[in-house]
Design a protein that fits this description.
The structure is a single chain. The chain is α/β, with parallel strands linked by helices. It has one domain (7-281): Rossmann fold (3-Layer(aba) Sandwich), CATH 3.40.50. The protein contains eight helices and nine strands. α6 (203-211) links the parallel β7 and β8. α1 (7-18) crosses α3 (98-105) and α5 packs across α8. The chain is globular, with a radius of gyration of 18 Å. The structure holds the ligand O=P(O)(O)O[C@@H]1C[C@H](O)[C@@H](CO)O1 and hypoxanthine (HPA). Ligand LQZ7MJT6 is lined by residues 32-33, 61, 84, 86, 115-116, 197, 218-220, 257, 260.
């Protein structure tokens, strides 16, 4: 009846990981598609491959390496997930978030989520960075919520309020850091909607998602944010707009994963500066 990993199993993986690193981070960062370069900011790194961790799911998507990187970023202890797990890879929703539960068991209290996303808001452009103010859990509201199944209260409550998922103080701090880095012109703040993927949206779907009130669409992040909040972690999220969704048939263009990765590479340095300065000032 109980979907999901047992509390004891998660704790044991956490202990195993802490045995493989001298670092004791409280900040975790998940790298989105094409954003793995964030790990280049980590010094004194101890790397653990997902394949070395018992019953840990493996990332199968190009641009997601399958490594946990423990170390320091601008003097703060961090752990980065360089390799995210997506529902469309075939994992049940709960399994895509095992790493988030494990990060909590390692001592993480603040989780920074990054992703690549398609722009739905016509004021946005490729290369913009959107602070996630709120999300729409499209799979969740249609029955595939990551918290579906038996609930172990040692992880968190059966019924989770989600009105305050994304931390407002970290959003304010990020805007101020972006200003100092000269990035204000590309900063946006909006609503991210998760679709199951792996198909990119049709024109009709993009119109629907925009009418729902979403500014950007992607295939991840929401289950991770929910599970992190379930366990009482602070959550902050950034979407890099890697492509603009087609809302008109006559100018519709096909998005590709290569395009997503290339947009990530192009904005990599700015995103690294933004995230590392945020970490430093937290
Ligand atoms: O891991 P994220 O959400 O950044 O990855 C996005 C969604 C798909 O996995 C992929 C599509 O190109 O990028
Ligand atoms: O346009 C998109 N749609 C869904 N997921 C995405 N991830 C990057 N771009 C997109």
């Amino acid at each position: 009846m109980c979907e999901g990993p047992s509390f004891e199993h998660v704790q044991s993986i956490g202990e195993l990981l802490l045995g493989k690193t001298k670092h004791r981070p409280t900040i975790g960062i998940i790298c989105g598609s094409g954003l793995g370069g964030l790990a280049d900011m980590v010094e004194d790194a101890n790397v653990v491959l997902y394949s070395e961790i018992p019953s840990f799911p493996i990332s199968t998507v190009p641009g997601h390496m399958g490594k946990l990187v423990f170390g320091t970023m601008k003097g703060k202890q961090v752990v980065l997930m360089r390799g995210r797990l997506h529902y469309y890879e075939g994992y049940p929703m709960w399994k895509t978030t095992i790493p988030v539960r494990v990060l909590k068991a390692c001592g993480i209290s603040t989780l920074i989520l990054t992703n690549a996303a398609g722009g739905l808001n016509s004021d946005y452009s490729v290369g913009d960075i959107m602070i996630i103010k709120d999300h729409i859990d499209l799979p969740g509201i249609s029955g595939e919520c990551v918290l579906r199944g038996g609930n172990d209260e040692r992880f968190g409550p059966r019924f989770l309020a989600t009105v305050d998922t994304y931390d407002k103080e970290l959003a304010t701090l990020t805007k101020s850091i972006a200003g100092k880095l000269g990035l204000s012109d590309i900063m946006r703040e909006g609503t991210y909607i998760m679709i199951g993927g792996p198909t990119f949206e049709t024109v009709a779907e993009s119109r629907l998602l925009r009418n729902f009130g979403a500014d950007a669409v992607g295939m991840s992040t929401v289950p991770e944010a929910i599970v992190a909040r379930h366990m009482g972690m602070k959550v902050f999220g950034l979407s890099l707009i890697t492509d603009m969704c087609s809302l008109q048939y006559d100018v519709a263009s096909a998005t590709t994963h290569e395009q997503v990765l290339a947009a990530g590479r192009k904005r990599a340095k700015d995103l690294q500066e933004l995230v590392s300065n945020l970490v430093q000032n937290m």
